[in-house]
Every structure is written in C-alpha cells, then in structure tokens.
Amino acid sequence: MEGEGQPGSGPPAEGLLADGHLILWTLCSVLLPVFITFWCSLQRSRRQLHRRDIFRKSKHGWRDTDLFSQPTYCCVCAQHILQGAFCDCCGLRVDEGCLKKADKRFQCKEIMLKSEGRALDVMPHHWIRGNVPLCSYCVVCKQQCGSQPKLCDYRCIWCQKTVHDECMKNSLKNEKCDFGEFRNIIIPPSYLTYINQMRKDKKTDYEVLASKFGKQWTPVIILANSRSGTNMGEGLLGEFRILLNPVQVFDVTKTPPFKALQLCTLLPYYSARVLVCGGDGTVGWVLDAVDEMKIKGQEKYIPQVAVLPLGTGNDLSNTLGWGTGYAGEIPVTQVLRNVMEADGIKLDRWKVQITNKGYYNLRKPKEFTMNNYFSIGPDALMALNFHAHREKAPSLFSSRILNKAVYLFYGTKDCLVQECKDLNKKIELELDGEQVQLPNLEGIIVLNIGYWGGGCRLWEGMGDETYPLARHDDGLLEVVGVYGSFHCAQIQVKLANPFRIGQAHTVRLILKCSMMPMQVDGEPWAQGPCTVTITHKTHASMLYFSGEQTDDDISSTSEQEDIKETET
C-alpha cells in the first residue's frame, strides 16, 4: 500500500513547483519594470536637485533646455545638447554633465567692472564660442557665421558682433567693445562702477559722468510681467538680458515697479526710458509707481514709458501706436529700435472716487486711478464674470484668443438675460455740474483714450457723422451710452454707433439703487448705491510710436485732415 502511494504523490509536487515558477516569473515581470521606473525617477530627481543647486549658487542665469526646444552644442564638450542649460544673460549653452565645469570656466556678463588694475574706460569684447544667431555675419570677412553643423565661431555678448574661428585675431580679442547697435540704450558696467565710487565719495553730479556717453544716450529699463497674457514675459526677460545689461531688466512679479524705477535716480535728469511688457493693468501699475516718485521729490528722474502689449485688450498700447498685442511676430531687436525712435507725448490720468451711500457710512471713499476708461453696465458685467472665472483657474486663461472667446460667451449670455436693463432709471449723470437726461440705456462708458473693447474706436464711430477725434491729452473725457450687449457687439464690428452723451472735464454719476457691475481699466467689481466722481489727477509721460498704424488709425487721420481742410 505504501509503495502504491509513493508514485502517486509525484505529479502534485511537480504541479506545485511549476505554479511556483509561474508566480515567480509573473512577480518579476511586474515588479522589475516598477523597480526600474522607480530607480530612474529617483536618479532623475537627484540630477534635478543637483542642477537646481548649481543654478542657485551660480552667477549665470541658468534655464533648462533640451534637444527638442532648440538644437544647440555644448560650449565645453562641443557635443549636441540632449538635456542641459543655457544662460539667459550671456547666452552660454552647456550639456547637463558639463554644467559644473562651465560654471567655473566661463564668466557671465559683468554688471559692474572690477577696478583693480583695470582701466574702466576700456572694456574689451567678451567672446563666447558657438551657437551664434542665424543670418549673422563675420565682422572681418563679412561672410555668414554659424553655418557649419558643429560648435564654431564667436559672438560678443555685449555688442553682439560675430566672427569666424579662422578670422579671430589677438588684436580683435583685445579690441575695445563699443556695445554695438544699442550702445545708446545700454547702461555700461563702467558707468555703474563710477557711480558706486561717486556715492562712496558722496558726490551726485551724474551729468558730467554721463556726458562721456554723448547726448544720444537714453538708457532703457525693461519692466516685464512674466504672468501677463500669453505668459511670454519669461522668455522676453531672457532676450532683453542678452541684448542689454541685466541690471536694466526686471520682472515686476519679483521686483515691484517703484523699486525697479529707483535705477532712474542713478541716471542723468530726464534721460531714462521704460519699456513695460504686459497688459494695460501692468502699465497702470508702473504709472502708479511713477506718481509715487513724484510724491517723493524725484520729478527730475521721471522716465518716459513705452508699451509692449502682452495682455488681452491692450487698448492703451493701441492708442499709443504699439499695436493690439505682441506674439513674437517681430524680433526683440526691432522692439528696441522702435523704443529708440518713439516720440514723447502726455497722457491724462484721472481720479475715480467712489463714495458709498448710507447714514452710518464712516468708511473712506474708494479711489482708483484711470488711464483708459470707466464703465457701468454690460461690458463691466462681462469683465466681472471673466475675472471671477480666471481667479478660479488662471492656467486656463493663458491664450488671448481663448480669453476673447470667453468674453463673447458672456456677452451672448447677457443678450438673453439683460441684467443691466433700465439703467437710466437707476442713475443720475452730471457733466461739468449739469445733469443730463438719458434715454433707455443699459450701460455708460467714460473714455480717456481713443480705443475701447480690444481695438474699437468708440467715440468717432462710423458713418457720415463727423466727430472730433478723441484725444488722451486734452483734459476732456468722452461719455457714451450703449443699449445692451448686442449693441456693444454691433459697435465692435462697425455696424452701429454708440449714443454720444458728451464731453466734460468732470463726470459725476449717482447710483440710486441696486447692485451694478462697474470697472476701471478692466478691474471689475459689483457696486451698491454710491456716488462716482471722476476728476483730472495728473499727466504721465509716454512714448508714442507712429510706425504701426491700423486701418482705423489711417481712416481717422484722413477724416481729421478732411475736417481741417473744410475749416480752412
């Protein structure tokens, strides 16, 4: 019996062994990829921590790059960069493995010169090899540089001149750098070194020092909002740092405008220019900082302000000739040329004071500064709805086209609901102290500039009626009414005119009952019964660029010329 039982016990044991092998291989096939993935992610995180540690301690402005973002060559090993970094100040590009070597070997742009044993008036070229811009030409032989598929040729990080490897001579290496095309807007490191010495000696006569750079020297300070509009600000900051002295370039989300504008106090009187890269809200923020400079007795250092539009509406930049929006269609070098060629003009700024109604209201009146327009009604309601949803999910509103589509959606919704109807029964309007009788309106818009609603000339309108062009420097406000959201849409596509109420130096609006949406320069809120008073506050020094005109600009200019001819 025992002999018969032993042979029968074999097959079950072999089955268990086979099942054990199957389970083991199954576990290996599942756990091994998991382990490899975990190990790779651990190594990647270690490399990232190491890279960030180098970024933090380095004097270079390192940013991540790879083969897919921009094919380049490492300045250390001369190989293709698969994963590495580039400096957004000097343009140096290195592979991840060579990052530490490059950080020790190559020097970044000097904000100030070291005076030990060095003539401050003589600044040699600062050459970096490889990755020269396309369509650049050698200063010696005038032939194209950077055309070979390898690390070759040199570029000066200050004057942006390029030269072939074989054309590089010792005389060229020791040649004085003239800062190239943008010498009249760059703050040289030697100037800041001299300023530092003068401040130690308690001297403030900067005019004599600036005379060495000539009368054409008008330094440009860049104030960019890295969060504006299509989030192009971060890339623009790097491009400007490469072309200018990095000390001239500020991110207003990290350095407040007033603090950044203190650089103007180290420059000659009335010489500085500021380029604001952002939307109309960023421009208003910078102009508020300029007003603060006036309050603190720094009137002689007030800069002139230009605009590179990155926002959604950009009506102020459009009024000043800088266009409706920037999406990289022209190079940054051309933007700087436009700033150099722009003319100075004045912009009216207005104080909007809102006093809430009520017997026991002890709060101070709210005050806003208006550059563009104030409105109550459907356009303010659209802005309020848009603003509320953007606050909940800001990452979804990074596209200018998508933002305008959201505005269209809320405008269409209001056409059906008509939340602002019978506005004329809820408010009283006074222009220069005289009460105005209103028709059945849903909205009132008070304009300081020519454009409204993302590029529409509201006051001039269309048709045969001739109205004087709205100006932004005459101390007058234009007041118009709209019949609803659908009427706003008709105005924007030039199928209708607004109801023109009049022009005035002072506007007073009394909201007698209910909550109504209001906005000042695109900043909306819901307001209860109150009195709104708009009076002139000050002027701002702006820069107007006449090289870019829209069809509306050309037609409006021709209409103005026709009016002048008929008057004469």
TrEMBL record:
SMART domains (UniProt xref): C1, DAGKa, DAGKc
Broad class of the protein's primary localization: cytoplasm
GO molecular function, one term: ATP binding
Domain Phorbol-ester/DAG-type as annotated: residue spans: 59-108, 124-177
Entry annotated with the keyword ATP-binding: yes
Segments of this protein annotated with the region Disordered: 549-568
Enzyme class, spelled out: transferase
The enzyme's E.C. designation: 2.7.1.107
GO cellular component, one term: membrane
Membrane topology listed for this record: Single-pass membrane protein
Metabolic or biological pathway, per its Swiss-Prot or TrEMBL entry: Lipid metabolism; glycerolipid metabolism; Glycerolipid metabolism
Acidic residues compositional bias, start-end: 549-560
Compartment(s) of residence: Cytoplasm; Membrane
Entry-linked InterPro entries: ATP-NAD_kinase_N, C1-like_sf, DGK, Diacylglycerol_kin_accessory, Diacylglycerol_kinase_cat_dom, NAD/diacylglycerol_kinase_sf, PKC_DAG/PE
Function: Membrane-bound diacylglycerol kinase that converts diacylglycerol/DAG into phosphatidic acid/phosphatidate/PA and regulates the respective levels of these two bioactive lipids. Thereby, acts as a central switch between the signaling pathways activated by these second messengers with different cellular targets and opposite effects in numerous biological processes. Also plays an important role in the biosynthesis of complex lipids.
Stated family: Belongs to the eukaryotic diacylglycerol kinase family.
Name of the protein in question: Diacylglycerol kinase
